[in-house]
Amino acid sequence: MEPPISASQIHSAELDHKELQPQSILPAAAAAAASAHCNGAKEEPPIVFVSDSDHQKLRTSPARQTSVSMGEINRAEYVSVGESPSPAVVSNAKKVSVLPLVFLIFYEVSGGPFGVEDSVGAAGPLLALLGFLVFPLIWSIPEALITAEMGTMFPENGGYVVWVSSALGPFWGFQQGWMKWLSGVIDNALYPVLFLDYLKSEIPALGGGLPRVAAVLALTVILTYMNYRGLTIVGWVAVILGVFSILPFAVMGLVSIPKLRPARWVVVNLKDVDWNLYLNTLFWNLNYWDSISTLAGEVENPNKTLPKALFYALILVVLSYFLPLLSGTGAIALNRELWTDGYFSDVAKIIGGAWLGWWIQGAAAMSNMGMFVAEMSSDSFQLLGMAERGMLPEFFSKRSRHGTPLIGILFSASGVVLLSWLSFQEIVAAENFLYCFGMILEFLAFIKLRIKHPAASRPYKIPVGTAGSILMCIPPTILICIVLALSTVKVMIVSLAAVAIGLLLQPGLKYVEKKRWLKFSVSADLPDLHFANRDRPDTLVY
Fold first, then answer.
1. What is the top-level taxon of the source organism (predicted)?
2. 389 in helix, strand or coil?
3. Tens digit of pLDDT for each residue in 77-125?
């Protein structure tokens, strides 16, 4: 046997193979060499090409690099020189099926008609009803369709972060992750507050002071623990809470039939419309369809389950808004000043009596719990997905014994507690502003991948061509611009400051990685987004 190859021989081999990317290396060869080194074996190890950087991303062999296409598994991992690759961690968590996924989407987007009352107060019954019929056509349906196509194209927990990374590069992928995670945490800070708001009429002590602060903390801890116990538990809890939240409005609709006056539905005064509040209410109640993409890696057969669940959830969300508004505005005389957050419980008391009002109060409280656990699941698994792609330190990818992202859950819960002091209107406006920026990046990524890589594998594909894809994104983009333009100066300054933090955070994390202060790694179980052959139509490159 010949002695092991020396460092000088490796360096000489590098010089003779300049046409190879300096970071290219055989994963199997690297593992064999490390094993031989550890066991003191004298067999000749394969030649390994190593660059001068401290962390090397294991890539596929030169022969295989010409045939890697999107969706193929590349066992890639960051390892230090002289360090053996760590074994891949396989999660034993149960996958989410269709019904729990439908209600997870329902709570990501809606949770029921709680919070739509401001649309009547801002614009009157006619515009409120039309808004929840037209807005889904120009916003919800395009967003849900894009989520179905891109989510099945990249069925992993990074979700929209991976979409943007594959099309626009890792820098913009990180910005997408930062803005979407922050908007999600801001959104989640709202639900413990709303939960207590619905209960304070019966328990006045929860209206403020130390009891309210303690209640917010206790509620956050309980719901966070539920997320820790597993996504399948969260999914079935969402089903139970969803049925409990929707049922009283179905009863209210039946009881209201004899009292309906169709003339009340067409009341409108275009000179007295608060367009900012009206559009923000519609936008807030009908967005976040893409949030479910960050759970795609936890879904059973996502190529079929995800599009199906999005379709069912879309129908459920639209009906859960439109029908209660139809019965509420048609059965009682209009007083727009009363139509504010939480007014549906009073409407139910007028229509059906105190028992129905109490039922809707309880349903509202439960709905906020459902929205909290669904949003936290999405936010925490997004951080796990970003860590698996090497965008965040490796400890974010660690799972608990229940298969849940423990560090991501703790970070998201901390953000909720820190932001829970904001008012309802400030929360909605701030999260909408950040969400709009993220959606623009998603539209750009969707269109670019359609143009540059039309032949890439898409288990679900929207039945429109390139021109249709572009046209489909125009109406929601116009709506985004309108929402941004109507933002207050305060919200704009705070939101732009948050965006600026993300622009600095990504290079800062790269510096931390370069200095090896924290460990970053790419999961061995994910397909490679860096494809060597840029000429093939079925590969995705940036």
1. Eukaryota
2. strand
3. 434 334 444 444 445 568 999 999 999 999 999 999 988 999 999 999 9
